[in-house]
Amino acid sequence: MKKFSFFSVLLLLCMLVVPFQTSADDSDDLFIRGDADANGEVNIADVTALIDYLLKGAWPEVDYQIFTANGVQFKMVKVVGGTFTMGATPEQGSDALSNESPTHDVMLSDYYIGETEVTQELWIAVMGSNPSEFTSANGYTDNLQRPVEMVSWSQCQAFLNKLNELTGKNFRLPTEAEWEFAARGGTKSKGYKYAGSNVINDVAWYRVNASDMGSTSLDYGPHSVGTKQANELGIYDMSGNVREWVNDWYGDYGNAQVNPTGPSTGTYRVNRGGCWNYSATYCRVSYRCNNLPTFVRSFVGLRLALPCE
Predict the structure, then answer these.
(1) Of 61, 81, 96, which one is at a domain's C-terminal end?
(2) Nearest Cα to 306, choosing from 213, 209, 189, 170?
(3) What is the largest CA-CA distance in the chain?
(4) 91 Cβ contact list (under 8 Å, min separation 6)
(5) pLDDT digits (tens, 9 = 90+) for 224-253
(6) Residues 179, 205: one domain?
(7) Residues 70, 125: contact at Cβ < 8 Å?
(8) Largest CB tally within 10 Å, which of 74, 107, 161, 262?
């Protein structure tokens, strides 16, 4: 394999301001292998992709679709379907709770899921306002790349309806099974306890590094999306930052299922993933919790899903 000098690596990193992309496929959707953001800034995904290229001689096998809503771009990662064991699998250890059992096999079809949580920037582009607690209006730094929060499950449905009007697509919240499969790394899973690592600091903004219990006021709260390490599928923040609403009503686990969508009725909706004020125990990939559809807090947001057409 060809060796690269320090200066050639530096030059290539600088060149990331120029988008790297493949040609469009038969549809109008564009698959990419790392790009500059719309404002010309390079995000961590771009650097990771280039480093992978330098080390392995190929771009990582991650398929994205790029969408735009009122001038704001966002990426959706393709998740190749497969079968996995959902729930309190052995690597979750003694931290696993009773509602994570029994473990059961789930088979899923292909789908797309958000590379990151929905940002404040995207929410504003679609809804015209920002419901979040962590904004400049409330004394925090003006950073619209933080995940949107203070949104209920019901408000997420209104957002999705408007987003679909703008894009002509069928975005929705992921099912609970889709969320967990993606968090575990899908068919590329390495069996981690958290989404992308067994070391939580690698992949998550959580209580120790993002709350007033273990951080400075400057770093308090949710951070810009995509600033921690991605998981095996190139997806960010599924073990921290904000908890994420999913589509399912909350209920007990059952038997093996194909493309499950949860109970047909219920009182509470499920949200998944850790958040900035949670301990590591509650950032595991199998952890699940539930709230009323009207529940809003500064540690709950959302991530998009999209069926494969």
Answers:
(1) 61
(2) 170
(3) 60
(4) 191, 192, 193, 198
(5) 999 999 999 999 999 999 999 999 999 999
(6) yes
(7) yes
(8) 74
Q: What pTM was computed for the model?
A: 0.81
Q: Give the CATH number, domain containing residue 76.
A: 3.90.1580.10
User: Domain check: are 2 and 129 in the same one?
Assistant: no
- 3-state class of 78 per DSSP? strand
The Cα–Cα gap between 250 and 264 comes to 10
Give the C-alpha separation, 133 to 149, whole Å: 7
Residues 105 and 44 in one domain: no
What pLDDT, in 10s, does the model give residues 158-207? 999 999 999 999 999 999 999 999 999 999 999 999 999 999 999 999 99
Structural domains in the chain (count): 2
All residues at 6 or more sequence positions from 188 whose CB lies less than 8 Å from its CB, including other chains? 232, 233
Supply the DSSP symbol for 40.
S
Amino acid 227 reads T
Q: What angle do CA 20, 168, 149 make, to 5 degrees?
A: 75
Range of the domain at 264: 70-307
Q: Which residue has the tokens 């607690």?
A: 133
Distance CA 169, CA 10 (A): 39
Average pLDDT score over residue span 52-72:
74
272 and 302, same domain (yes or no):
yes
Measured CA to CA, the distance from residue 150 to residue 282 in angstroms comes to 19
Tokens 């996995």 belong to residue = 84
225 and 162, same structural domain? Answer: yes
